[in-house]
Amino acid sequence: MSVRELVVLGTASQVPTRHRNHNGYLLRWDGEGILFDPGEGTQRQMLRAGVAAHDLNRICVTHFHGDHSLGLAGVIQRVNLDQVPHPVTAHYPKSGQHFFDRLRYATAYRETVGITEAPVDADGDLAVTRSYTLQAQKLSHPVESYGYRLTEPDGRRMLPERLAAHGISGPDAGRIQREGVLGGVTLDEVSEVRRGQRFAFVMDTRLCDGVYALAEGCDLLVIESTFLDEDARLAADHGHLTAGQAAAVARDAGVRHLVLTHFSQRYSDSENPASFERQARAAGYEGELTVACDLLRVPVPKRR
């Protein structure tokens, strides 16, 4: 049975707290694992969350600030130590190649797994598989930063009443689905489009076109909300979003489930959930809302 869920490994921005590790997010998607922004301590958080190096197929880094990338060294070395048998691909801003090289070879270790380097230098498709298309969009931050989006191909949903009306049943239902036509009846006549699921990961950024492009129509949006709305000036100065801004993006983009994360240490862990949730609702977002905490698991919403 396929599993689609987000495993939250860390939720702190810049400085970890007693209850929040640096960033780290694993998306499980039909047997693949995509690790986003492995900050310091990600290896240990993976252990606590029951995530193994063998679960990783891709590593996506939005930008090279330490809270989003310092865990790369440990994760890559663990992939090699455990001799992961399948290819692992790393995506990251091409302008930070020297940072990636330093982290990949930060210390001596035996390299047994060839990490495929696939740096990003423009908006567009990064990979196309049977389960998804992975895309990148440039964001607005003091260093070059990209967000990531997964889009499942659209499928077809068979309509029993239309099949019955055309006298199609049993093996013939599978046949028309495979071949597109049966006895003069087309697939379009007995089915409808089943929209593929969409996931986006948006970290350090100001409001910009890339944020909206990534969020559009998402079933699950993971987005930074470093600051509360009263600190909007700080957010703009440092290239971040507030809770209200992030929620307004989700509202306008028709997001079904919004996950807020990447919280500044200026707010106490105890006040985080209520304050961020209150401001997100005040911005008019009415969908499912999660204020993330470490080791949380968030399922991708079921198809419409």
Could you describe the 3D structure shown?
There is one protein chain. The protein is an alpha/beta fold and 304 residues long. The chain is built from 11 helices and 18 strands. It has a 7-stranded mixed sheet with strand order 6-5-4-3-2-1-18. Strands 7-8-9-14-15-16-17 form a 7-stranded mixed sheet. The protein has a two-stranded antiparallel ribbon with strand order 10-13. Strand 2 and strand 3 form a beta hairpin. The longest helix is centred in the last third of the chain and has 11 residues. The protein is globular. The two termini are 19 Å apart.
Strand arrangement across the biggest beta sheet: 6-5-4-3-2-1-18
Principal-axes geometry comes out as globular
Number of strands: 18
Per DSSP, what share of the residues sits in E-state strands of 2 or more residues?
25-35%
What is the helix/strand order? Answer: EEEHEHHEHEEEEEHHEEHEEHEHHEHEE
Task: Output mean pLDDT.
Answer: 95
Q: How many helix segments?
A: 11
Q: Please outline the major beta sheet.
A: 7 strands, mixed
Low-pLDDT runs of 5+ residues are none
Protein traits:
single chain; 304 residues; alpha/beta; 7-stranded mixed β-sheet; globular
Brief write-up:
This protein has 304 residues and is α/β, with parallel strands linked by helices. The protein has helices at residues 42-49, 66-69, 72-81, 97-104, 160-165, 171-179, 187-190, 209-215, 232-238, 243-253, 272-282, and strands spanning 4-10, 24-29, 32-36, 58-60, 88-91, 115-117, 124-128, 133-138, 146-151, 155-158, 181-182, 185-186, 191-194, 198-202, 220-224, 257-261, 288-291, 297-299. The chain has 11 helices and 18 strands.
